[in-house]
C-alpha cells in the first residue's frame, strides 16, 4: 500500500530570511512584504511573492499569517541546559559565578526527577523564544542527558548535545574519569545520535577542568563516531585563560589544548573567544570551526568585547548563542541587539544591520552545526519558523503596523521583541508552540 501524498499548506506572511551570508554578500536579505511559502511534509517546496506561489498552487489551503513577521526559527549555538533555573546571577566574573551560581545547581542534576523538571523548563524556554535548533551544553550526569534527549524528542526540538565531562577543579560530584567519559559518551551516542532530530556533541566543559587524558577520551569518541559534533569554551575570561596557560605549559595557547588532542575541525563550535590570539584565529579559520558569540553573557559576566572584526578578517565563522544561564535569557532577538550595541560601542566594531542580526540568529547557526536543511526559507529546507505577532497596543505592534519596509520591522523586532511576541513556532512543519 502506498501512503497518501501529504496535502501542502500555503503560508501567507510578511517573511524575511537570509539565504546568503550578509558579511560576504551585500544582497543577502530576502524580504517579502506579501510572501508565500508552500510547505509539504514539513519541507518548503516553493517560496516567493504570494501571488506567484498562489498562481502555481491554486488549490493549496492557505494559512494567513499577515500582520506579524515570519522568520526562520532561531538557532542558538551555545546554551546550558542545567542553568535555566539560575539565570540572573549578576555581578560576578566567570570563575566566581561558576563556583557560586552555576556549579551548585549543576550538581543537583544528579537527581533524575530534578533533571526531568529542568529539561522541561529549559526546552520550554528555548521554544518559547522561537528557537527551533540548539547546540546545548549538557549535564555532567548521563541520566540527566537521557532525560534531556527524551524531552527534546517529545517536543520535537532539533537538539545537538552531549554529556559534559571534566576531571578537575570543579567539585567532586561533577568529576569523572577518561574511561567513564568514553563509556558513557559511547552509550549516549549509540542511543541518541541521529535518532529523530537529535545529534550528539562531545563536550569537555573547558580545558581548565579537563586533563589531557579526558581530552584524549573526547578525541577517541570523535574518531570512533564520525559525524558527532564537538563543543566547548575558549578564551572567555582573562583569569580563566591564565589558569589554562599554567595548567598546560606545553600548549601554544588555549586553542592548542584542544587542537593538540585533535578536537578542532569543521564540526567544532567554541563558545566566546573574546580574547583570541592571531594564531588561534588563523587555526580556527583553517579548520572551518565556529566561534559562538554570546553578547549578553559577555556583558553580564564582564568577560569583554567580542572582536568580531578580527574574526571576520581572519575568516572565522561566527554564530550566536544565548549562553543561558551566564546569559540573561533565551531570546536570540535580545542577543542580536546586544551584539549590535557592543559592536557600536567598541573601537573598530562592525556595524551590524538587521540582515546581519537575522543571519547570525539563523543561517549562521545552521552553517556552524552543518545542518544544511535548516536556517532559511529556501525550497528544500525544513519549515522551521517563528511567527512574531505582538499583542495589539504594544509598541512593537505599532511599529509593525506603520513600518516603512519589512527590514524596518525586522530592526524593531530585534530592538524590542521578546518571547511574549512569539505567537507560533514550527519545527519540520509541526507546530510546537501556538496554534
Ligand atoms: N559562560 C560560561 N563559561 C563557562 N566556562 C566553563 N563553564 C562555563 C559555563 O557554564 N558558562
Ligand atoms: Zn557557556
Automatic annotation (TrEMBL):
EC number, as in UniProt: 3.5.4.3
Superkingdom field: Bacteria
Positions of the Aminodeoxyfutalosine deaminase/Imidazolonepropionase-like composite domain: 35-60
Gene3D superfamilies per record: Metal-dependent hydrolases, Urease, subunit C, domain 1
Protein name (Swiss-Prot/TrEMBL): Guanine deaminase
Binding note for cofactor: Binds 1 zinc ion per subunit.
Cofactor(s) demanded: Zn(2+)
Function (record text): Catalyzes the hydrolytic deamination of guanine, producing xanthine and ammonia.
Reaction(s) catalysed by this chain's protein: guanine + H2O + H(+) = xanthine + NH4(+)
One family name in Pfam for this protein: Amidohydro_1
Source taxonomy: Bacteria, Thermotogati, Deinococcota, Deinococci, Deinococcales
Keywords noted in UniProt: Hydrolase, Metal-binding, Zinc
NCBIfam families reported in the protein's UniProt record: guan_deamin (TIGR02967), PRK09228.1 (NF006679)
Family designation: Belongs to the metallo-dependent hydrolases superfamily. ATZ/TRZ family.
Transmembrane segment boundaries: none
Broad class of enzyme this protein falls into: hydrolase
Gene: guaD
Biological or metabolic pathway of the protein: Purine metabolism; guanine degradation; xanthine from guanine: step 1/1
Amidohydrolase-related domain residues: 70-432
Keyword Heme: no
Amino acid at each position: 500500500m502506498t501512503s497518501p501524498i501529504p496535502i501542502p499548506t500555503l503560508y501567507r506572511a510578511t517573511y524575511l530570511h537570509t539565504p546568503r551570508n550578509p558579511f560576504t554578500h551585500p544582497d543577502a536579505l530576502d524580504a517579502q512584504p506579501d510572501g508565500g511559502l508552500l510547505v509539504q511534509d514539513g519541507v518548503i517546496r516553493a517560496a516567493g511573492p504570494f501571488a506567484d506561489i498562489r498562481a502555481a498552487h491554486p488549490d493549496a489551503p492557505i494559512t494567513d499569517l499577515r500582520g506579524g513577521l515570519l522568520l526562520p526559527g532561531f538557532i542558538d549555538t551555545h546554551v546550558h541546559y542545567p542553568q535555566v533555573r539560575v539565570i540572573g546571577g549578576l555581578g560576578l566574573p566567570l570563575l566566581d559565578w561558576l563556583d557560586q551560581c552555576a556549579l551548585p545547581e549543576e550538581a543537583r542534576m544528579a537527581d533524575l526527577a530534578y533533571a526531568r523538571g529542568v529539561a522541561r523548563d529549559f526546552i520550554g524556554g528555548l521554544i518559547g523564544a522561537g528557537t527551533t535548533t540548539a547546540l546545548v551544553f549538557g549535564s555532567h550526569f548521563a541520566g540527566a542527558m537521557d532525560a534531556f534527549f527524551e524531552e527534546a524528542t517529545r517536543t520535537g526540538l532539533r537538539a545537538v548535545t552531549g554529556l559534559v565531562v571534566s576531571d578537575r577543579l570543579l567539585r567532586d560530584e561533577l568529576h569523572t574519569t577518561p574511561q567513564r567519559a568514553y563509556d558513557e559518551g559511547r552509550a549516549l551516542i549509540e542511543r541518541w545520535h541521529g535518532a529523530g532530530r537529535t545529534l550528539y556533541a562531545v563536550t569537555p566543559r573547558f580545558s581548565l577542568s579537563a586533563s589531557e587524558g579526558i581530552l584524549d577520551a573526547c578525541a577517541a569518541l570523535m574518531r570512533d563516531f564520525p559525524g558527532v559534533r564537538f563543543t566547548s569554551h575558549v578564551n572567555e575570561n582573562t583569569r580563566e585563560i591564565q589558569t589554562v596557560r599554567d595548567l598546560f605549559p606545553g600548549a601554544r595557547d588555549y586553542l592548542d589544548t584542544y587542537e593538540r588532542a585533535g578536537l578542532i575541525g569543521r564540526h567544532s563550535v567554541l563558545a566566546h573567544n573574546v580574547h583570541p590570539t592571531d594564531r588561534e584565529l588563523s587555526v580556527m579559520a583553517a579548520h572551518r570551526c565556529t566561534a559562538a558569540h554570546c553578547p549578553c553573557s559577555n556583558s553580564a559576566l564582564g568577560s569583554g568585547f567580542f572582536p568580531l572584526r578580527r574574526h571576520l578578517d581572519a575568516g572565522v565563522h561566527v554564530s550566536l548563542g544565548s549562553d543561558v544561564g551566564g546569559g540573561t535569557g533565551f531570546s536570540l532577538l535580545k542577543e542580536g541587539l546586544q551584539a549590535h550595541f557592543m559592536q557600536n560601542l567598541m573601537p573598530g566594531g562592525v556595524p551590524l544591520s538587521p540582515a546581519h542580526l537575522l543571519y547570525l540568529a539563523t543561517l549562521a547557526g545552521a552553517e556552524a552545526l552543518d545542518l544544511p536543511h535548516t536556517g532559511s526559507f529556501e525550497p528544500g529546507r525544513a519549515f522551521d519558523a517563528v511567527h512574531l505577532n505582538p499583542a495589539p497596543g504594544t509598541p512593537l505592534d505599532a511599529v509593525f503596523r506603520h513600518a516603512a519596509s519589512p527590514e524596518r520591522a525586522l530592526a524593531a523586532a530585534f530592538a524590542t521583541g521578546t518571547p511574549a511576541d512569539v505567537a507560533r513556532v514550527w519545527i519540520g512543519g509541526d507546530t510546537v508552540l501556538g496554534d
